[in-house]
Structure formats: structure tokens, C-alpha cells
């Protein structure tokens, strides 16, 4: 088993520090930027977040396929990290730029720039996530690496969420539009520098066999024929989520029933006459650990995304101290780094499954208790919020570690390994969960009559902010804990899979 050096682990972690300058910045502040600075309505911004996730459903899978079939002297995944970094920084700036446009023009601009941001994030982050799966064959080393990764992620998020309000105030001098734009220039330059460090300090050691039976062009054409099976469920879920009425419910039920029938037929066929894309999809659809993790990724991102998405509103209106949101983010992220770094140790003691369930339950209960926080009681809010965040920080760390385990399981079971596709699904459900979480925050606020440009609507929306800060996200944590009870990859089975794969690779070599 190859033991990774601390230097390489830290180098890998800087990549997620860079990515979270975008991811946590957009997740935490983009909604309030759209409604309170750019001038979009909460309902329009909610639909924007949902529609963009439809494109992610396709681009994440395509990027996973492309990354799996990339072959350069620098490896499969590392080149994409460095190639995409400048474009990611560019769209980060454009998303927080406020051109003088009509109402419809602003909406179009928001769609174009936000889709551009999510697309470049996909091109960067799918290979970055998959890189973890080929740096070492050891599942324990991957757990440690994941801990470093999310410590880096939280550190990057700390810069954005902790200091963005002060930087906006400093650069804008009273003009938030200018302040946001110049702050993003700063973060974009830092992002590119951190991505260079990740590219230079990491190494790919596992080289999965490339499927040479068909070229990438053929596989993409084959994928395009199956796009309705990817897009339709997302469309049905989006319409039902947004409109919440009988017709969208019927459409959702019909689509999901049809999908179930199609998947059952596909997985019952022999793989001998299937294309490479179909074999990859069947491998995933018959991979029970991966399917459960798919649900876990969505539920945990809903949990974390709702909490982070409402903080800016909650402190601005419920606590009546907008700049205190930055201090709260700093406190959460410091605790998150500690939680991420403790994950590897606690996973060895309790096992990944038990630790995941404990983290979900404790974080959910502590988050729910925030409902009773007295208005303006900062000590109460900080204490419960930080305690909940310590356990919440373990969720993404465990999730991406276990995705690597599910890739090992697929290779052990089927003799094939599509690391990029496995991790692309992981980043996809996280982004989908983040999009739905951001949309849910705006949908709830709109339901309480909130209008960011009309101060008279604030008082009536405060109960919605309380629920979004407490029991609404907690419900997703409890659902995740229930789902995790069915996860089949125990510590013993993981060790068996790892040992047998090492023997197979050695024999092949």
C-alpha cells in the first residue's frame, strides 16, 4: 500500500481550497447577491438555480467519460485541473458583475454567466475529485486524503464566507455592486495560483485500463441517444419541486415509473452486446453502494446547502447584523476544518457507516434546536451552530472517501473501473443538491412574501428564515441517517475488496 506524503496531501487539498472560493462563495452569497444587489426576484432566482442543474446532469457525466478516456504524459485527471482554472476564475468574476440591463436582460445575463460558472466548475472539479481515486490504492489513505481535502475546502470557504462582506464594503465604499466585482478579481487570482500548486504536487499512480473497443466520439453519440433518460427525471423533479401541484406531481410519478421499468430491462440484459457507455451505466446501476451514496450526496448537500444558503439572510434580518454573518462563517469553517481532520481517526474507531449515521443524527438535532434561538442571541446561535458544524464537516469527507470505495467495488465485481464516471456522479448530486437547496431557500422566502428590494416584506418572512436555519435542513439529515442503514460496504468487505484488487493488479503487471 502506497503511503502518501503530507506534502502531497496538502497539495491535493489546495485544489479544493481553490474550488471552494467558487463553490462556497456562490452557495453562500450568490442568492442574496441576486435578490438584494442585482435585483432579481426570489422566485426568478429560484428557477435559475433549478434550471442550471439540468445542464449539470449532462455535463458531469460527459466530463466523467472524457476524463476516463484522457491519456496524457501528465495523467488522466491532472491536466484538466490546470487547463480549466483560468476560465473558472473568469466566470467567477462575471457572475458577480452587475451590467446595466433591463429586467429581462439581467435574467438572461444571470443564466449565461451562472451556466458558464457551473460548466467550468464541472470541467475542473470532476477530474479533481476523480484524482483522489488514482493517487493511492489504499482505502485508509484515501480517507486521510479526503480529510485533508475537506480541510482545504473549508479553508477556501473561510476566505470567501468569512471575509467577503468586509471586502465588499472595503472595495465598494458603499456600492455593493462594485465591491462584489473587485472582491471576485482578488479571489480569481488566488484560485488560479492554488490550482497550479495542486497540479504540480500530485501524482497519479493507478492507471485503469482504457476501453479501446470504441472511441470517445462514438461513446458521446451513444450517450446523446440516452439523454432523455438523464434529463427527464431531473426535469420532472424540478417542475414538481418548483410548482408543487397536481399536474407536476402526476408528471413526476409517470416519468419515475417509466425510468424504473427502463432501468430494470437494461440491467437484466447481457452486457456482451452493449456499448461501452451502456456497460458503464449498467455497472453503476447495479452498484448498490454507489446508488446509496448517490442519495446520500443529495441529502447531505441539501442539509448543508440550506443551512449555508440562509445564513446571509438570517443574520441580515433576524440578527440585524449583516457583517456578523462573516464572523459566523469563520467560526463554522474553523470548526469544519477540525471536524474534517478528525474524520479519519474516528472512522478507524467507529467505521465509516456508523460514523456517518452518528454525524447525521447529532448535526441534525443540534441544527433543529436553532429554531428556539432568541432573536439576536448571538452566543446561543454560535454555540449550537458550531457544534452542529463539527459533525456536518464529516459528511462530505466520508462521502468522497466512500465514492472511491464504490469504484473499487465496481472493479472488484465487474472487472472494469470508471473512476471519472463514479466521481462525476458524486459531484453532480452535490451540485444538484446545492442547486435545489439554494432554490428551496428562495422558494420558502418567496412563500412568505419576501422581496429583497422591498424592506416592508422582511418582518413577515422571519419565521421562514427560522425554519430554514433549523428544522427544514435537519429533516434531510435524519433522512440521510435512515438511508445509511442500508449501505452494504462494511469495513471487513472493504478490506477484502482492497486486498483482492492489489493481488489482481500485481498479477496483471
From TrEMBL:
UniProt xrefs under Gene3D superfamilies: MFS general substrate transporter like domains (1.20.1250.20)
Q: Which Pfam families is this protein grouped with? A: MFS_2 (PF13347)
- Top-rank taxon of the source lineage equals Bacteria
| UniProt entry tagged with the keyword Hydrolase | no
Q: Which UniProt keywords apply?
A: Membrane, Transmembrane, Transmembrane helix
Q: Which InterPro entries match?
A: MFS_2 (IPR039672), MFS_trans_sf (IPR036259)
Residues spanning the membrane: 26-52, 80-99, 111-135, 147-170, 182-202, 223-243, 249-268, 289-315, 327-346, 353-373, 379-400, 421-448, 468-487
Tell me if Plastid is a UniProt keyword of this record. Answer: no
Q: Which family does the similarity line name?
A: Belongs to the sodium:galactoside symporter (TC 2.A.2) family.
Provide the protein name. MFS transporter
Amino acid at each position: 500500500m502506497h503511503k502518501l506524503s503530507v506534502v502531497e496531501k496538502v497539495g491535493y487539498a489546495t485544489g479544493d481550497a481553490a474550488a471552494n472560493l467558487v463553490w462556497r462563495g456562490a452557495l453562500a452569497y450568490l442568492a442574496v447577491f441576486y435578490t438584494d444587489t442585482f435585483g432579481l426576484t426570489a422566485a426568478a432566482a429560484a428557477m435559475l438555480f433549478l434550471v442550471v442543474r439540468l445542464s449539470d446532469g449532462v455535463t458531469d457525466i460527459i466530463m466523467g467519460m472524457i476524463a476516463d478516456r484522457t491519456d496524457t504524459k501528465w495523467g488522466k485527471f491532472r491536466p484538466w485541473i490546470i487547463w480549466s482554472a483560468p476560465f473558472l476564475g473568469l466566470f467567477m468574476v462575471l457572475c458577480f458583475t452587475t451590467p446595466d440591463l433591463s429586467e429581462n436582460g439581467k435574467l438572461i445575463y444571470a443564466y449565461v454567466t451562472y451556466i458558464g460558472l457551473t460548466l467550468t466548475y464541472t470541467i475542473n472539479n470532476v477530474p479533481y475529485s476523480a484524482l483522489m481515486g488514482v493517487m493511492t490504492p489504499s482505502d485508509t489513505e484515501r480517507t486521510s486524503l479526503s480529510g485533508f481535502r475537506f480541510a482545504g475546502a473549508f479553508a477556501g470557504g473561510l476566505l470567501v464566507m468569512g471575509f467577503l462582506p468586509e471586502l465588499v464594503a472595503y472595495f465598494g465604499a458603499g456600492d455593493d455592486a462594485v465591491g462584489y466585482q473587485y472582491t471576485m478579481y482578488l479571489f480569481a487570482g488566488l484560485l488560479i495560483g492554488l490550482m497550479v500548486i495542486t497540479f504540480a504536487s500530485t501524482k497519479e499512480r493507478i492507471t485503469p485500463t482504457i476501453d479501446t473497443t470504441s472511441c470517445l466520439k462514438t461513446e458521446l453519440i451513444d450517450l446523446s441517444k440516452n439523454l432523455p433518460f438523464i434529463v427527464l427525471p431531473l426535469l420532472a423533479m424540478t417542475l414538481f419541486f418548483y410548482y408543487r401541484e397536481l399536474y407536476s406531481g402526476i408528471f413526476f410519478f409517470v416519468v419515475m415509473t417509466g425510468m424504473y421499468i427502463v432501468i430494470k430491462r437494461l440491467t437484466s440484459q447481457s452486457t456482451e452486446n452493449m456499448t461501452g457507455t451502456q456497460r458503464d451505466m449498467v455497472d453503476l446501476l447495479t452498484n448498490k453502494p454507489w446508488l446509496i451514496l448517490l442519495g446520500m450526496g443529495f441529502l447531505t448537500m441539501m442539509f448543508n446547502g440550506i443551512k449555508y444558503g440562509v445564513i446571509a439572510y438570517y443574520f441580515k434580518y433576524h440578527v440585524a447584523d449583516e457583517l456578523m454573518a462573516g464572523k459566523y462563517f469563520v467560526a463554522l469553517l474553523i470548526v469544519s476544518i477540525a471536524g474534517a481532520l478528525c474524520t479519519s481517526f474516528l472512522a478507524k474507531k467507529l467505521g465509516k457507516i456508523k460514523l456517518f449515521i452518528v454525524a447525521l443524527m447529532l448535526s441534525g438535532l443540534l441544527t433543529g434546536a436553532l429554531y428556539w434561538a432568541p432573536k439576536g442571541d448571538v452566543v446561543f446561535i454560535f454555540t449550537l451552530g458550531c457544534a452542529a458544524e463539527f459533525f456536518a464537516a464529516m459528511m462530505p469527507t466520508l462521502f468522497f472517501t466512500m465514492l472511491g470505495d464504490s469504484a473499487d467495488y465496481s472493479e472488484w465485481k465487474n472487472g472494469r473501473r470508471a473512476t471519472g464516471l463514479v466521481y462525476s456522479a458524486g459531484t453532480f448530486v452535490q451540485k444538484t443538491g446545492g442547486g435545489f437547496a439554494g432554490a428551496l431557500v428562495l422558494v420558502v422566502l418567496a412563500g412568505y412574501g419576501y422581496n429583497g428590494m422591498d424592506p416592508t416584506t422582511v418582518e413577515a418572512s422571519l419565521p421562514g428564515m427560522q425554519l430554514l436555519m433549523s428544522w427544514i435542513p435537519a429533516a434531510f439529515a435524519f433522512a440521510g441517517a435512515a438511508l445509511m442503514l442500508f449501505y452494504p460496504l462494511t469495513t471487513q468487505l472493504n478490506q477484502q475488496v482492497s486486498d483482492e484488487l492489489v493481488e489482481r493488479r500485481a498479477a496483471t503487471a
